[in-house]
Amino acid sequence: MIDMPAFAAPFAQPAGSPIRELFPYLSQPGMISLAGGYPSPSLFDAEGLAHAAARAMTGDAQTLQYGATEGLPILRTALAALMRERGIQSGAEQVMVTTGSQQAFDLLVRVLIEPGDTVLVEVPAYPATLQALRLAQAHIVPVPMDEHGLQADALAALLRQLPAKQRPKLLYTVPNFSNPRGTLLAAERREALVQLACTHGFWVVEDDPYGELQFDTADAPDGSTPPMPPTLRTIGDRLADGGVNPVVYLSSLSKTVAPALRVGWMLADSSLLRRCAVAKQTVDLCTSPLAQMVAARYLESGRYPATVQRARIEYQRRMQALVQGIASSLNGCVHCAPPAGGMFVWATFAQSIAPQALFDAAVAQQVLYVPGKAFYPDSAPHHTMRLSFAAPDVPQIEQAVQRLAAAVTELLH
Ligand SMILES: Cc1ncc(COP(=O)(O)O)c(C=O)c1O
Protein backbone atom coordinates (compact mmCIF):
# COMPACT_ATOMS: atom_id res chain seq x y z
CA MET A 1 0.00 0.00 0.00
CA ILE A 2 1.25 3.48 -0.83
CA ASP A 3 2.45 5.63 2.09
CA MET A 4 0.18 8.51 2.92
CA PRO A 5 1.74 12.03 2.83
CA ALA A 6 3.66 13.21 5.88
CA PHE A 7 1.98 15.30 8.53
CA ALA A 8 2.95 18.96 8.75
CA ALA A 9 6.12 19.32 10.85
CA PRO A 10 4.49 20.56 14.08
CA PHE A 11 2.08 17.62 13.99
CA ALA A 12 4.64 14.92 13.17
CA GLN A 13 5.04 13.97 16.85
CA PRO A 14 2.55 16.26 18.59
CA ALA A 15 2.32 16.43 22.35
CA GLY A 16 -1.31 16.96 23.36
CA SER A 17 -2.44 19.25 26.16
CA PRO A 18 -0.95 17.90 29.40
CA ILE A 19 -4.16 18.80 31.22
CA ARG A 20 -6.52 17.21 28.70
CA GLU A 21 -4.40 14.07 28.88
CA LEU A 22 -5.42 13.69 32.51
CA PHE A 23 -9.02 13.13 31.37
CA PRO A 24 -8.91 9.30 31.53
CA TYR A 25 -8.13 9.52 35.27
CA LEU A 26 -11.15 11.75 35.83
CA SER A 27 -13.54 8.98 34.91
CA GLN A 28 -12.06 6.62 37.52
CA PRO A 29 -14.73 5.99 40.16
CA GLY A 30 -14.13 7.87 43.42
CA MET A 31 -11.45 10.18 42.01
CA ILE A 32 -11.44 13.73 43.44
CA SER A 33 -10.01 16.15 40.91
CA LEU A 34 -8.09 19.26 41.84
CA ALA A 35 -6.77 19.27 38.28
CA GLY A 36 -8.90 21.14 35.73
CA GLY A 37 -9.75 24.82 35.91
CA TYR A 38 -13.43 23.91 35.89
CA PRO A 39 -15.92 26.29 37.48
CA SER A 40 -18.16 24.80 40.15
CA PRO A 41 -21.35 23.33 38.64
CA SER A 42 -23.20 24.52 41.76
CA LEU A 43 -22.47 28.11 40.70
CA PHE A 44 -23.93 27.90 37.23
CA ASP A 45 -26.96 30.19 37.06
CA ALA A 46 -29.03 27.64 35.15
CA GLU A 47 -32.27 29.52 35.76
CA GLY A 48 -30.87 32.81 34.50
CA LEU A 49 -29.32 31.10 31.49
CA ALA A 50 -32.59 29.33 30.70
CA HIS A 51 -34.34 32.70 30.62
CA ALA A 52 -31.57 34.15 28.48
CA ALA A 53 -31.79 31.18 26.10
CA ALA A 54 -35.57 31.51 25.83
CA ARG A 55 -35.22 35.20 25.05
CA ALA A 56 -32.48 34.46 22.52
CA MET A 57 -34.76 32.01 20.71
CA THR A 58 -37.72 34.37 20.59
CA GLY A 59 -35.63 37.21 19.18
CA ASP A 60 -35.07 37.82 15.52
CA ALA A 61 -33.74 35.20 13.14
CA GLN A 62 -30.11 36.32 13.46
CA THR A 63 -29.75 33.93 16.41
CA LEU A 64 -30.02 30.93 14.09
CA GLN A 65 -28.15 32.49 11.17
CA TYR A 66 -24.44 32.90 10.37
CA GLY A 67 -23.20 36.12 11.94
CA ALA A 68 -20.45 38.67 11.36
CA THR A 69 -17.02 37.23 12.11
CA GLU A 70 -16.33 39.96 14.66
CA GLY A 71 -19.44 39.02 16.66
CA LEU A 72 -23.05 40.08 17.10
CA PRO A 73 -23.34 43.86 17.64
CA ILE A 74 -25.56 43.37 20.71
CA LEU A 75 -22.90 41.27 22.43
CA ARG A 76 -20.00 43.48 21.36
CA THR A 77 -21.84 46.45 22.85
CA ALA A 78 -22.52 44.58 26.11
CA LEU A 79 -18.88 43.48 26.35
CA ALA A 80 -17.64 47.02 25.71
CA ALA A 81 -19.81 48.14 28.64
CA LEU A 82 -18.33 45.36 30.81
CA MET A 83 -14.86 46.53 29.79
CA ARG A 84 -15.64 50.05 30.92
CA GLU A 85 -16.51 48.64 34.36
CA ARG A 86 -12.99 47.20 34.40
CA GLY A 87 -11.61 50.65 33.65
CA ILE A 88 -10.98 49.99 29.95
CA GLN A 89 -12.32 52.62 27.58
CA SER A 90 -13.64 50.76 24.60
CA GLY A 91 -16.21 51.05 21.89
CA ALA A 92 -18.04 48.00 20.53
CA GLU A 93 -15.97 48.19 17.33
CA GLN A 94 -12.77 47.46 19.29
CA VAL A 95 -14.19 44.22 20.71
CA MET A 96 -14.07 40.99 18.75
CA VAL A 97 -16.03 38.00 20.05
CA THR A 98 -14.08 34.74 19.95
CA THR A 99 -14.91 31.11 20.57
CA GLY A 100 -13.51 31.16 24.09
CA SER A 101 -10.54 33.36 24.88
CA GLN A 102 -8.42 30.36 23.92
CA GLN A 103 -9.31 31.04 20.31
CA ALA A 104 -8.28 34.67 20.65
CA PHE A 105 -4.73 33.66 21.54
CA ASP A 106 -4.64 31.13 18.73
CA LEU A 107 -5.71 33.82 16.24
CA LEU A 108 -3.00 36.16 17.51
CA VAL A 109 -0.41 33.46 17.02
CA ARG A 110 -1.62 32.83 13.48
CA VAL A 111 -1.48 36.52 12.66
CA LEU A 112 1.86 37.33 14.27
CA ILE A 113 4.11 34.31 14.65
CA GLU A 114 6.31 32.63 12.08
CA PRO A 115 8.59 29.67 12.88
CA GLY A 116 11.56 30.85 14.92
CA ASP A 117 9.96 34.11 16.09
CA THR A 118 10.69 35.00 19.70
CA VAL A 119 7.80 35.07 22.15
CA LEU A 120 8.19 36.00 25.81
CA VAL A 121 6.05 33.97 28.20
CA GLU A 122 5.68 34.32 31.95
CA VAL A 123 6.65 31.04 33.54
CA PRO A 124 5.06 28.95 34.98
CA ALA A 125 2.58 29.47 32.14
CA TYR A 126 -0.90 28.45 31.09
CA PRO A 127 -0.18 25.19 29.18
CA ALA A 128 -2.43 25.92 26.19
CA THR A 129 -0.36 29.02 25.50
CA LEU A 130 2.80 26.96 25.42
CA GLN A 131 1.06 24.41 23.20
CA ALA A 132 -0.13 27.03 20.68
CA LEU A 133 3.35 28.53 20.54
CA ARG A 134 5.02 25.16 20.11
CA LEU A 135 2.68 24.30 17.24
CA ALA A 136 3.57 27.65 15.66
CA GLN A 137 7.27 26.70 16.13
CA ALA A 138 7.91 29.88 18.07
CA HIS A 139 11.11 30.44 20.01
CA ILE A 140 9.72 30.56 23.57
CA VAL A 141 11.73 32.69 26.01
CA PRO A 142 10.57 32.29 29.63
CA VAL A 143 10.21 35.32 31.89
CA PRO A 144 10.39 34.41 35.59
CA MET A 145 7.63 35.14 38.09
CA ASP A 146 7.55 35.45 41.85
CA GLU A 147 4.71 35.93 44.32
CA HIS A 148 3.94 39.34 42.74
CA GLY A 149 3.69 38.00 39.21
CA LEU A 150 5.98 38.50 36.24
CA GLN A 151 9.31 40.02 37.25
CA ALA A 152 9.53 43.25 35.27
CA ASP A 153 13.18 43.89 36.19
CA ALA A 154 14.15 40.40 34.97
CA LEU A 155 12.27 41.17 31.76
CA ALA A 156 14.17 44.43 31.32
CA ALA A 157 17.49 42.59 31.80
CA LEU A 158 16.43 39.90 29.35
CA LEU A 159 15.48 42.46 26.72
CA ARG A 160 18.91 44.06 27.03
CA GLN A 161 20.57 40.68 26.46
CA LEU A 162 18.48 39.37 23.58
CA PRO A 163 20.32 39.65 20.24
CA ALA A 164 18.64 42.01 17.76
CA LYS A 165 17.49 39.14 15.54
CA GLN A 166 15.61 37.68 18.50
CA ARG A 167 13.55 40.82 19.06
CA PRO A 168 10.32 39.51 20.62
CA LYS A 169 7.03 39.86 18.80
CA LEU A 170 4.84 39.40 21.81
CA LEU A 171 4.74 38.72 25.51
CA TYR A 172 2.04 36.63 27.20
CA THR A 173 0.90 37.21 30.77
CA VAL A 174 -2.08 36.53 33.05
CA PRO A 175 -1.78 39.52 35.41
CA ASN A 176 -4.86 38.75 37.52
CA PHE A 177 -4.77 35.54 39.60
CA SER A 178 -2.54 33.81 37.12
CA ASN A 179 -2.86 30.28 35.92
CA PRO A 180 -1.12 28.39 37.53
CA ARG A 181 0.50 30.57 40.22
CA GLY A 182 -2.55 32.53 41.35
CA THR A 183 -0.47 35.73 41.53
CA LEU A 184 -1.68 39.30 41.12
CA LEU A 185 0.79 41.40 39.15
CA ALA A 186 1.93 44.35 41.25
CA ALA A 187 0.87 47.82 40.04
CA GLU A 188 4.40 49.15 39.55
CA ARG A 189 5.34 46.07 37.52
CA ARG A 190 2.33 46.65 35.27
CA GLU A 191 3.54 50.12 34.50
CA ALA A 192 7.12 48.91 33.89
CA LEU A 193 5.96 46.06 31.64
CA VAL A 194 3.87 48.27 29.35
CA GLN A 195 6.65 50.85 29.28
CA LEU A 196 9.05 48.13 28.09
CA ALA A 197 6.57 47.07 25.40
CA CYS A 198 6.31 50.67 24.17
CA THR A 199 10.09 51.16 24.21
CA HIS A 200 11.08 47.86 22.59
CA GLY A 201 8.04 47.49 20.35
CA PHE A 202 6.31 44.21 21.12
CA TRP A 203 2.68 43.25 21.69
CA VAL A 204 1.57 42.30 25.19
CA VAL A 205 -1.20 39.74 25.53
CA GLU A 206 -3.07 40.43 28.76
CA ASP A 207 -5.12 37.29 29.31
CA ASP A 208 -7.74 38.02 31.97
CA PRO A 209 -10.30 35.28 32.56
CA TYR A 210 -10.00 35.47 36.38
CA GLY A 211 -9.80 39.19 37.28
CA GLU A 212 -13.37 39.39 38.55
CA LEU A 213 -12.85 36.48 40.93
CA GLN A 214 -11.13 38.58 43.56
CA PHE A 215 -11.39 37.52 47.21
CA ASP A 216 -12.21 39.73 50.17
CA THR A 217 -9.30 40.54 52.42
CA ALA A 218 -9.79 40.71 56.14
CA ASP A 219 -6.94 43.22 56.44
CA ALA A 220 -8.61 45.86 54.24
CA PRO A 221 -9.78 48.73 56.49
CA ASP A 222 -13.49 48.06 55.84
CA GLY A 223 -13.08 44.30 55.31
CA SER A 224 -13.86 44.69 51.61
CA THR A 225 -11.82 43.89 48.53
CA PRO A 226 -8.96 46.28 47.78
CA PRO A 227 -9.19 48.00 44.38
CA MET A 228 -7.69 45.98 41.56
CA PRO A 229 -4.55 47.44 39.98
CA PRO A 230 -5.17 48.99 36.55
CA THR A 231 -5.32 46.69 33.55
CA LEU A 232 -2.29 46.66 31.25
CA ARG A 233 -4.64 47.77 28.48
CA THR A 234 -5.54 50.94 30.42
CA ILE A 235 -1.88 51.69 31.05
CA GLY A 236 -1.22 51.07 27.35
CA ASP A 237 -3.90 53.61 26.39
CA ARG A 238 -2.18 56.22 28.52
CA LEU A 239 1.41 55.45 27.48
CA ALA A 240 0.56 55.11 23.79
CA ASP A 241 -0.84 58.64 23.94
CA GLY A 242 -2.94 58.32 20.82
CA GLY A 243 -0.49 55.93 19.08
CA VAL A 244 -0.79 52.14 18.89
CA ASN A 245 -1.63 50.56 22.25
CA PRO A 246 0.64 47.47 22.38
CA VAL A 247 -1.66 45.66 24.83
CA VAL A 248 -4.16 43.09 23.57
CA TYR A 249 -6.76 42.34 26.24
CA LEU A 250 -8.43 38.92 26.31
CA SER A 251 -11.25 37.80 28.55
CA SER A 252 -14.00 35.24 28.76
CA LEU A 253 -17.36 34.30 30.26
CA SER A 254 -16.10 30.75 30.87
CA LYS A 255 -15.06 31.16 34.48
CA THR A 256 -17.89 33.41 35.62
CA VAL A 257 -20.92 32.25 33.60
CA ALA A 258 -20.31 28.93 31.84
CA PRO A 259 -17.48 27.47 29.76
CA ALA A 260 -20.04 25.74 27.52
CA LEU A 261 -21.03 29.10 26.04
CA ARG A 262 -17.53 29.29 24.53
CA VAL A 263 -17.76 33.07 24.56
CA GLY A 264 -14.54 34.98 24.91
CA TRP A 265 -13.36 38.27 23.45
CA MET A 266 -10.41 40.31 22.37
CA LEU A 267 -9.80 44.03 22.54
CA ALA A 268 -6.92 45.26 20.43
CA ASP A 269 -5.60 47.86 18.06
CA SER A 270 -7.67 47.90 14.86
CA SER A 271 -4.70 46.71 12.74
CA LEU A 272 -4.47 43.53 14.78
CA LEU A 273 -8.21 43.05 15.16
CA ARG A 274 -8.78 43.21 11.42
CA ARG A 275 -6.14 40.54 10.79
CA CYS A 276 -7.49 38.31 13.56
CA ALA A 277 -10.93 38.60 11.97
CA VAL A 278 -9.49 37.41 8.64
CA ALA A 279 -7.81 34.48 10.43
CA LYS A 280 -11.08 33.65 12.22
CA GLN A 281 -12.97 33.56 8.92
CA THR A 282 -11.19 30.32 8.00
CA VAL A 283 -11.31 28.87 11.51
CA ASP A 284 -15.05 29.00 12.26
CA LEU A 285 -16.61 31.89 10.27
CA CYS A 286 -18.10 33.19 13.49
CA THR A 287 -18.64 32.20 17.11
CA SER A 288 -22.03 30.48 17.46
CA PRO A 289 -24.58 33.31 17.18
CA LEU A 290 -26.91 31.28 19.39
CA ALA A 291 -24.32 31.19 22.17
CA GLN A 292 -23.54 34.86 21.62
CA MET A 293 -27.21 35.82 21.89
CA VAL A 294 -27.63 33.79 25.09
CA ALA A 295 -24.57 35.59 26.50
CA ALA A 296 -25.90 38.99 25.42
CA ARG A 297 -29.34 38.36 26.91
CA TYR A 298 -27.74 37.08 30.10
CA LEU A 299 -25.61 40.21 30.50
CA GLU A 300 -28.66 42.32 29.70
CA SER A 301 -30.71 40.54 32.40
CA GLY A 302 -28.62 42.15 35.14
CA ARG A 303 -27.90 38.82 36.86
CA TYR A 304 -24.19 38.80 36.03
CA PRO A 305 -22.88 40.84 39.01
CA ALA A 306 -24.67 38.63 41.56
CA THR A 307 -23.42 35.48 39.80
CA VAL A 308 -19.84 36.76 39.98
CA GLN A 309 -20.28 37.75 43.62
CA ARG A 310 -21.52 34.25 44.54
CA ALA A 311 -18.49 32.74 42.81
CA ARG A 312 -16.07 35.05 44.63
CA ILE A 313 -17.49 34.08 48.02
CA GLU A 314 -17.66 30.37 47.34
CA TYR A 315 -14.21 30.14 45.74
CA GLN A 316 -12.69 31.99 48.66
CA ARG A 317 -14.23 29.46 51.06
CA ARG A 318 -12.88 26.58 49.01
CA MET A 319 -9.44 28.16 48.66
CA GLN A 320 -9.24 28.61 52.43
CA ALA A 321 -10.21 24.97 53.00
CA LEU A 322 -7.46 23.86 50.64
CA VAL A 323 -4.71 26.13 51.96
CA GLN A 324 -5.56 25.42 55.61
CA GLY A 325 -5.77 21.69 54.90
CA ILE A 326 -2.32 21.72 53.29
CA ALA A 327 -0.88 23.70 56.19
CA SER A 328 -2.28 21.32 58.81
CA SER A 329 -1.94 17.94 57.05
CA LEU A 330 1.10 18.41 54.82
CA ASN A 331 3.07 20.75 57.02
CA GLY A 332 6.72 20.83 56.01
CA CYS A 333 6.29 18.69 52.87
CA VAL A 334 4.05 20.83 50.70
CA HIS A 335 4.07 24.64 50.77
CA CYS A 336 1.68 27.12 49.23
CA ALA A 337 0.50 30.70 49.67
CA PRO A 338 -3.18 31.69 49.58
CA PRO A 339 -4.00 33.44 46.28
CA ALA A 340 -6.00 36.70 46.38
CA GLY A 341 -8.44 35.43 43.78
CA GLY A 342 -8.96 33.04 40.87
CA MET A 343 -9.14 29.26 40.93
CA PHE A 344 -5.65 27.97 41.66
CA VAL A 345 -3.21 27.22 44.42
CA TRP A 346 0.38 26.68 43.37
CA ALA A 347 2.22 24.33 45.69
CA THR A 348 5.85 23.34 46.03
CA PHE A 349 6.93 20.03 47.53
CA ALA A 350 10.13 18.69 49.05
CA GLN A 351 13.05 17.97 46.69
CA SER A 352 13.30 14.51 48.27
CA ILE A 353 9.97 13.57 46.66
CA ALA A 354 10.15 12.47 43.01
CA PRO A 355 7.44 14.33 41.02
CA GLN A 356 6.27 11.33 39.00
CA ALA A 357 6.24 9.05 42.06
CA LEU A 358 4.06 11.58 43.91
CA PHE A 359 1.66 11.87 41.00
CA ASP A 360 1.34 8.07 40.75
CA ALA A 361 0.83 7.75 44.51
CA ALA A 362 -1.80 10.51 44.44
CA VAL A 363 -3.70 8.81 41.61
CA ALA A 364 -3.56 5.55 43.57
CA GLN A 365 -5.07 7.47 46.51
CA GLN A 366 -7.74 8.83 44.14
CA VAL A 367 -6.76 12.47 44.04
CA LEU A 368 -5.74 14.28 40.89
CA TYR A 369 -3.69 17.46 40.38
CA VAL A 370 -1.71 18.91 37.51
CA PRO A 371 2.03 18.23 37.86
CA GLY A 372 4.19 21.36 37.66
CA LYS A 373 6.03 20.26 34.54
CA ALA A 374 2.90 21.01 32.47
CA PHE A 375 3.53 24.73 32.98
CA TYR A 376 7.13 25.00 31.81
CA PRO A 377 8.58 25.09 28.32
CA ASP A 378 11.49 22.84 29.38
CA SER A 379 11.34 19.19 30.37
CA ALA A 380 13.28 19.48 33.65
CA PRO A 381 11.71 17.91 36.76
CA HIS A 382 9.67 20.46 38.72
CA HIS A 383 8.70 19.93 42.35
CA THR A 384 5.49 21.86 41.97
CA MET A 385 1.80 21.20 41.38
CA ARG A 386 -1.32 23.16 40.51
CA LEU A 387 -4.34 22.50 42.68
CA SER A 388 -7.70 23.89 41.63
CA PHE A 389 -10.22 24.48 44.39
CA ALA A 390 -13.03 25.65 42.11
CA ALA A 391 -14.92 22.47 41.21
CA PRO A 392 -14.84 20.28 44.36
CA ASP A 393 -16.87 21.38 47.39
CA VAL A 394 -15.32 21.92 50.84
CA PRO A 395 -15.82 18.32 52.13
CA GLN A 396 -14.29 16.98 48.91
CA ILE A 397 -11.36 19.37 49.24
CA GLU A 398 -10.78 18.21 52.82
CA GLN A 399 -10.84 14.60 51.69
CA ALA A 400 -8.53 15.37 48.77
CA VAL A 401 -5.97 16.88 51.16
CA GLN A 402 -6.12 13.75 53.35
CA ARG A 403 -5.49 11.61 50.29
CA LEU A 404 -2.61 13.80 49.20
CA ALA A 405 -1.17 13.54 52.70
CA ALA A 406 -1.46 9.74 52.51
CA ALA A 407 0.39 9.76 49.17
CA VAL A 408 3.19 11.95 50.56
CA THR A 409 3.50 9.86 53.74
CA GLU A 410 3.70 6.68 51.69
CA LEU A 411 6.59 8.12 49.65
CA LEU A 412 8.49 9.46 52.62
CA HIS A 413 8.43 6.12 54.40
C1 LIG B 1 -5.28 31.76 31.54
C2 LIG B 1 -6.36 31.17 30.71
N1 LIG B 1 -6.61 31.67 29.49
C3 LIG B 1 -7.56 31.18 28.71
C4 LIG B 1 -8.34 30.12 29.11
C5 LIG B 1 -9.37 29.58 28.17
O1 LIG B 1 -10.60 30.08 28.45
P1 LIG B 1 -11.83 29.95 27.44
O2 LIG B 1 -12.75 28.94 28.02
O3 LIG B 1 -12.40 31.32 27.39
O4 LIG B 1 -11.31 29.53 26.10
C6 LIG B 1 -8.12 29.54 30.36
C7 LIG B 1 -8.90 28.37 30.80
O5 LIG B 1 -8.56 27.66 31.69
C8 LIG B 1 -7.11 30.08 31.18
O6 LIG B 1 -6.84 29.59 32.39
From TrEMBL:
Gene3D superfamilies: Aspartate Aminotransferase, domain 1 (3.90.1150.10), Type I PLP-dependent aspartate aminotransferase-like (Major domain) (3.40.640.10). It holds the Pfam family Aminotran_1_2. The keyword Transferase applies. It is an enzyme of class 2 (transferase). InterPro entries: Aminotransferase_I/II_large (IPR004839), Class-I_PLP-dep_aminotransf (IPR050859), PyrdxlP-dep_Trfase (IPR015424), PyrdxlP-dep_Trfase_major (IPR015421), PyrdxlP-dep_Trfase_small (IPR015422). Keywords: Aminotransferase, Pyridoxal phosphate, Transferase. One of its GO terms (molecular function) is 2-aminoadipate transaminase activity. Its EC number is 2.6.1.39. Its cofactor is pyridoxal 5'-phosphate. Residues 52-404 form the Aminotransferase class I/classII large domain. The keyword Oxidoreductase does not apply. This is 2-aminoadipate transaminase.
